[in-house]
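User: Structure please.
Assistant: Input sequence and predicted structure:
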Amino acid sequence: LFEVKDWLSKVFSNYRGIEEKIEKTENIISKLEVKEGEIVQNKEIDKEEAKEPEKSILDSVESAELISDFINETKEHLETVEVKLLVLETERNDKDALDTVFRAFHTIKSLSGFLEISQIHILVKEIENLLHKVRKREIICDEGIIDMIFESVDLIKKMIAVLSINPGNKKELIEEEELSGILFKIQSAGSTGNIK
């Protein structure tokens, strides 16, 4: 555009009688021409750039809603688990109570895996594996196992509380040492039937 401006100035100077060396008109026109493909490409880029922020906002809103739903549903499942664990404290062979606890943790595991809430997913997966062995009567559902599941429930509640404050933080809800401690207990119970 600056070149065109200079060219026009020289043209007007010539009209006023001031002779200046003027570039051919065809050359100036060729500089102003844009190939059709370039126009289309630029338009497509503009469209994509316009869509990206909107898509990002929508993703953020949808993610926040999913996390909120997960938190509410997990709280309900944990309440059910606590009620059924109290039943198992007095009736260790209550199949209905055991199955209900297992299904609750299975649902939380599936949801946390889908939402990539990794620490909750890892913990609940281990609890589910332990409960599977209890259901198959490979290990006995004794007081130690019930207490450990209560402890796991408290830890999940703690992680849920952190997640509710900061839904964007799905990876590190508690210290890894704290998670490792309860995982070791669960895995030990699953392999020996006793709490170490």
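The CA atoms of residues 112 and 121 lie 5 Å apart.
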